[in-house]
Structures are given as C-alpha cells and as structure tokens.
Fold these 2 entries.
Entry 1:
Amino acid sequence: DAGITQSPRHKVTETGTPVTLRCHQTENHRYMYWYRQDPGHGLRLIHYSYGVKDTDKGEVSDGYSVSRSKTEDFLLTLESATSSQTSVYFCAISAPSGDTGELFFGEGSRLTVL
Amino acid sequence: SQQGEEDPQALSIQEGENATMNCSYKTSINNLQWYRQNSGRGLVHLILIRSNEREKHSGRLRVTLDTSKKSSSLLITASRAADTASYFCATAAGNKLTFGGGTRVLVKP
C-alpha cells in the first residue's frame, strides 16, 4: 500500500470553527490532491499541489485553502466550516510521467459540521 | 461538474456472471482510468488506458476506449462476491483527474 496517512480520520465540529485536515505521504511523490466525496457527486477536486509551495484550485475550491511547506505534507483548511462542507475528504498522491498517472488514495477523513 | 458519467448507477448480478459498466465523457483526455472503492475505504486504481489505445486487459478486467464516441467500458468477467464495490471512471487532462459518479456493483453469492 502507498504510504499515505490522513488525520484526523473522523471529526465533528460546529459551524464557524476552523478545521485543518492533514495528508502525510512517505512516497516522495510530487503531486498531491484533495478531493471530497458526496452522495450523487462522486469525487470532486478541491485543490492540488505540484510541488512545495505550488498549489492550484480544483472545481470546488471555494471555502477551502491548502498549504504545502514540505513534500510529504499537504494540509487542507476550512477557515470557517459550514454544514455544506460535511463530507468525506480524500487525499491522493501521484508521480506522473508526462501525463496524469495512477492516483494512490488515503483512507479518507469524515467531517461532520453541525 | 463531472467529466465522466457512469452507466448504470447500480448493478446487481450473480456470482460467476459478467459485469459491464460504461463511462461517457465530454472533452479531450490524455488517458482514462478505472478505480474501485469498497465501502468506507479509499479508492484503488484498477487500470489505465491511454487515448491512443483501444483495449486493455488486466486479469479479469477488460477496458475499452472509443475516443470518437468519448466513451469507455469496464468488463469484469466471472464476477466474485469480493467484486462488490463502487467503480469509478476518471478522465485525465493536464494534471487533474476528474471522476464520474460511479457504478455500485453488488455480486450475490
């Protein structure tokens, strides 16, 4: 299994509080991604990173920010959580060669915003 | 918006039967990938087919790609109860993978 660890795995928080999810990899892969998974929507890309301090937005980036200060860590922050951000969040890594290759996924972080 | 759309949304078959699911997409792609997700787990990569390939096999999996129709199919032969999962197609363009909504497959023993 690819060395990807997400933390926390489960979190319940209240509307308006900040939340940070962490993704840690031991594979030294260049690309890291944050997706959210909701019933009826499949997986939707929030943000991704193509190197240290290099990040870009995905299709559902509003309300989220990311940071990558080290190759191995990619943080997803909800500055002020809302109930619409209740979801399962997946981190993924990839080491593409020329085009987007295989993604390796973490086990997910289930976030509930009350 | 989803680039890939799977069909059917759900599929129920008997063990030993074949399972076929389809994926349609809208824009040009570099490659198309299929993933499996068991309940409560992360996605696992199954197979990747490049835009210049038409068919690919991996064990009991067969994937086809028709770029003129912007569609792909995944065939699982001789299904087993352990194949019960959700299956997602994902289209690659640039540095991003865009996933469809998935097909839930139930294989009954």
Entry 2:
Amino acid sequence: QKEVEQDPGPLSVPEGAIVSLNCTYSNSAFQYFMWYRQYSRKGPELLMYTYSSGNKEDGRFTAQVDKSSKYISLFIRDSQPSDSATYLCATLRGGAQKLVFGQGTRLTINP
Amino acid sequence: DSGVTQTPKHLITATGQRVTLRCSPRSGDLSVYWYQQSLDQGLQFLIQYYNGEERAKGNILERFSAQQFPDLHSELNLSSLELGDSALYFCASSVDWSDTQYFGPGTRLTVL
C-alpha cells in the first residue's frame, strides 16, 4: 500500500465549476500537508501548505485536512482553463526530510 | 520561475552509460533534494543534502550517487544506465528541511 493515495484521474470539468481533489494517507506521523501544481513539462510549484486539521484558503483555492480520517482535499472555485494541470498532494513527517507524493491527478478545465 | 536551475534540460544516452545532472539551488537555500518522476512510480524522493552533507536517503539505487559542493550546487550521477532509468529528474531546494521546497524545471533523461 502506498503511503499517499491519489486518484490519477483524468478529471475533466467545465469552466466555472468547483473542483474537488482528494488524497488519503496511511501514516498518522505525517504532520505537514501540501498541494503542488505541475504544468506539462514543468517542475511542481507549491500551491498550499498546511499543518493542522481544518481549512486554509488562498484566493480560489481551499485546502482541507482531516487528520482523524487521514484525508486531505483541495477545492478550486470558479475554475479556469489556466487551472488545467496535474495536482499532486504531498506530506512530510515531522522530523523527516523527504516529501511523500501522491500519484497526481490530471485536471482539465474545458472552456 | 522558482529560482532553481537545472542543466541540461534533455539528455539522450545509451544503456550502460554514465551521466551527470546539475542543480543550482535558490540563493540562500542550503538544502537540495533530488526526485525522480516516472509514469508508473510518480514523483519519488531520492536523496537530500544540507550544506554539503547527506541528510536523508530515499529509494536511490546504488548506481546513483549525488554530492553537494561548497558553492551549494549539487550533482546527481547516474551510472550503468538502464532503460528503466528514463524519467524526469527534479531538483528542489529549501532554506532548511522543514521549509517549502521549490522545484527546478527538471532534466528529462531518455535511455535508449
């Protein structure tokens, strides 16, 4: 079983829709949670970084962490074609140096 | 632009060969990480260096090695290359281990 599970999609939605991307993780020692966006042929770029359970909002993006169920989500409101990319969830165990990534979900926003 | 640079952008080589990938971290970042991204395995952590010293190791093959130099740039050496080593190799950097990691544009390695 992978430490972080993420549905690879692909996911295709119309412009303006609310997008929900999800990951589950198995190790309760994970304390930091991140969402990265990766455009084709580019390196991942950090979108959201959270530590505790609850919601964190940044513009059209909301990251949600539920440590009790080991579930992390990213919501994108008013989705735009420029949001089309692969979204990777990642976790970091306190005291550790390595990021553990999900498989990534390929998202397409159709105009 | 993350501020992390990687060279070369593309590498095409043959099985059994040896290649070196280079990474320059963001100004002020002491920690460098190497990741491998393939279609079947996703993004996998290979190794981390902090201020010249190895700090963490992931699933890095014995045929692979890395180092970080006094000017903080890092090199990833891949030897006895196999077809399965074809992948995107990313370098990331951060100020310290718990800080945000910023990724470079990657090197695409193709082994024929």
